[in-house]
Structure formats: C-alpha cells, structure tokens
Amino acid sequence: MRSDRAASLLAVELVFDRPLVLGETQPFRYRITDGTGGECTEYTRGFRYPVGHYLLQVYFTPPTLPVRCYRFTRRSAHAPRHRVTQVPLNGYHSAHLTEQDAGPGIVGLAWEWD
Questions:
Q1: Ramachandran class of 10: left when φ > 0, alpha when ψ lies in -120 to 50, beta otherwise
Q2: Residue 34 pLDDT more than 70?
Q3: Torsion of the alpha carbons at 99, 80, 10 and 27, rounded to the nearest 10
Q4: Vertex 61: Cα angle to 5 and 88 (nearest 5)
C-alpha cells in the first residue's frame, strides 16, 4: 500500500494466492475505510489491460449521505471525465456501476456532498 496525501491518492496491490491463467477470473471483495479525516469525493479503479467484467459498489454511512452520485471513465489520471452519468443512491445507502469489456483506462464513482 502506498499513499500520497498531497495528491489525495491511495494505491493498493491485491495479491491472490496464485497467479491467474489468461482468461481466468477471480471474484474478490475488499473494504477501504478512509481515516484521514479529509473529504472524499470519488473512488476510481485503473486498468492497464482489458477487463471482462468489473463491479464497483460504494456504501455511505447515514446520516451523512451524498446529494448526487455519478459514474465516469477517464483515459488517464489527469484526463477529463467522459461518459458521466448520474447514478441513484439506493435504499441501502449505496451506489454502484458495472463495466463489461472495459479497455485500459480508469472507471469510477464520484459524489457531491451538500
């Protein structure tokens, strides 16, 4: 795990128990709790290679809930957002996106606080 507070960036490598064979899939789940005390307004995932399926779900803790959530893609970390679409917050206080056959780049969820 590496972090850069000045850039508001956290990078984590997830290591499986064995290397995957080309075309093999491995479902996994992880949780990140931001204990920095700073305001968090997005979560992104970058892909260096094409990905068949990707699901991102973000949960929020009441009573502080975002007023709007958006899905988006980026070609690189500093590129502008593309394919921006509003995503509803469901009754469980979460928002999600799915991507199929995603090419290299970045996909993410962003939100606005009141």
A1: beta
A2: no
A3: 10
A4: 95
